[in-house]
């Protein structure tokens, strides 16, 4: 390709093969561009495939199956598929899925004629990347470059991690046994997901969080329901507490809080956020820089301060979800080559894979109240649904927030079995400007959990009808 006077090896070079990098590369290849992806040999598929989304969600499914937790409503509280669950039982399924996912990524790149260059990339100048791997060094040039290097767990400097007793979320996959007790420092998404998994396995879990509440971007009623179920699994919460120190001994650890409380446990897991993997990229050679969390700033088209260099995925910060990273990669690629592209829709779903799981899109009651926006609530509980009884889920719920004036959906919040799948029905209705009446007049398969939408919609419209009668 000729750009001005310059001749480049590739039209697009992507650093990183996670969800964002994959979709950026494939999108450019579909346009007939010459594309390469630079990735380390042991990280094809990115953090998502190796230590993040794929293994953690597979681990969750293994926990749910082997513990029989989701079927105890039907078969009794002592029901288990396997009595003595080992870390090998959990990792066998996890490693199988990771292996298959890596194969899928490789096949997709190969099928789309994207060259996979194995090694570690580093900028030499704004258009040149040096690659080192397998004992070899080479340089490649590209007209456009996408940075999709992802993140790694942030490690506070005062904490001595030993990858055995004191670990981060990556260290979960290297545990030799299921701990009898665990302290989880940080009640963010990753911390609470792993806290719920190990609690389901029978570990005594204590969650320490410096803030007064957890998951404060979620619906408070849903979060309270999750806390109730986690406490039922013997999880202890310590909110408004700072960790002063962690001491490691032969028999485990003792976590000392600033308030003076001391918590003994076999293992301590820190979930202190994520750090962008940018420290070895040589950003300064490209005319770029990162913030103290290793994140790179971009504009609405995912361009960095250097117009032909883009960044996508977790490395640019919020929302740092695999699903949004994929779209960011695709859009960045289209923008790089001047192709027409719609922006990401404002209504984005969030899925939190705790046990039970949470998913939502749109506004929360707190947000609407804070902005003085009127709304009505429609609720359906799984115990009212035939499918809820079949699934053994008597605690799940679906909540709709509805505008009294336009009758449009303002928010959808789901808690329980299949939440991350169910939310997409509400997302589609909201995205198309549909109203609660559409859900009332729609026939849903029976018996399904999707029927919860009709029940919640009827609940909301009955409340709206009562208001209309009063106004008359």
TrEMBL record:
The keyword Zinc does not apply. It is found in: Cytoplasm. InterPro entries: Class-I_Pyr_Nuc-Dis_Oxidored, FAD/NAD-bd_sf, FAD/NAD-binding_dom, FAD/NAD-linked_Rdtase_dimer_sf, Pyr_nuc-diS_OxRdtase, Pyr_nucl-diS_OxRdtase_dimer. It is an enzyme of class 1 (oxidoreductase). NAD(+) binds at residues 186-193, 209, 273. Its EC number is 1.6.1.1. It catalyses: NAD(+) + NADPH = NADH + NADP(+). Conversion of NADPH, generated by peripheral catabolic pathways, to NADH, which can enter the respiratory chain for energy generation. This is Probable soluble pyridine nucleotide transhydrogenase. It comes from Phytoactinopolyspora halotolerans.
């Amino acid at each position: 390709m000729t750009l001005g006077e310059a001749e480049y090896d590739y039209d697009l070079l992507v650093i990183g093969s996670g969800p964002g990098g994959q979709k950026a590369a494939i999108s450019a290849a579909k346009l007939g561009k010459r594309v390469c992806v630079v990735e380390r040999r042991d990280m094809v598929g990115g953090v998502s495939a190796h230590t993040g989304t794929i293994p953690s969600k597979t681990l969750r499914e293994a926990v749910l199956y082997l513990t029989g937790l989701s079927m105890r409503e039907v078969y009794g509280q002592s029901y288990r598929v396997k009595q003595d669950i080992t870390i090998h039982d959990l990792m066998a399924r996890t490693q199988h899925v990771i292996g298959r996912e890596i194969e899928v990524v490789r096949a997709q790149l190969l099928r789309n004629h994207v060259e996979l260059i194995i090694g570690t990339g580093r900028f030499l100048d704004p258009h040149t990347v040096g690659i080192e791997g397998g004992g070899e060094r080479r340089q490649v040039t590209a007209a456009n470059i996408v940075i999709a290097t992802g993140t790694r767990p942030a490690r506070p400097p005062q904490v001595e991690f030993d990858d055995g007793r004191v670990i981060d979320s990556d260290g979960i996959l290297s545990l030799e046994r299921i701990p009898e007790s665990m302290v989880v420092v940080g009640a963010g998404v990753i911390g609470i997901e792993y806290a719920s998994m190990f609690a389901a396995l029978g570990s005594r879990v204590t969650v320490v969080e410096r803030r007064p509440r957890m998951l404060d971007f979620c619906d408070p009623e849903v979060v309270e329901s999750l806390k109730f179920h986690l406490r039922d699994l013997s999880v202890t919460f310590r909110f408004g507490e700072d960790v002063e120190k962690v001491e490691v001994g032969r028999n485990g650890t003792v976590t000392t809080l600033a308030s003076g409380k001391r918590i003994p446990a076999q293992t301590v897991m820190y979930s202190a956020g994520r750090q962008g993997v940018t420290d070895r990229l040589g950003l300064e050679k490209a005319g770029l820089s990162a913030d103290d969390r290793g994140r790179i700033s971009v504009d609405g088209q995912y361009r960095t301060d250097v117009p032909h260099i883009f960044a996508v995925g977790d490395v640019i910060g919020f929302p740092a979800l695999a699903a949004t990273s994929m779209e960011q990669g695709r859009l960045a690629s289209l923008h790089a080559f001047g192709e027409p592209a719609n922006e990401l829709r404002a209504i984005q779903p969030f899925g939190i894979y705790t046990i039970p799981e949470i998913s939502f899109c749109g506004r929360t009651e707190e947000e609407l109240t804070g902005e003085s926006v009127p709304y009505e609530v429609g609720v359906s509980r799984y115990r009212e649904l035939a499918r809820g009884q079949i699934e053994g889920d008597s605690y799940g719920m679906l909540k709709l927030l509805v505008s009294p004036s336009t009758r449009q959906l303002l928010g959808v919040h789901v808690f329980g079995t299949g939440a991350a799948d169910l939310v997409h029905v509400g997302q589609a209705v909201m995205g198309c400007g549909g109203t609660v009446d559409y859900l009332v007049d729609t026939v849903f398969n029976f018996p399904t959990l999707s029927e919860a939408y009709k029940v919640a919609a009827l609940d909301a419209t009955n409340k709206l009808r009562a208001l209309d009668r009063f106004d008359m």
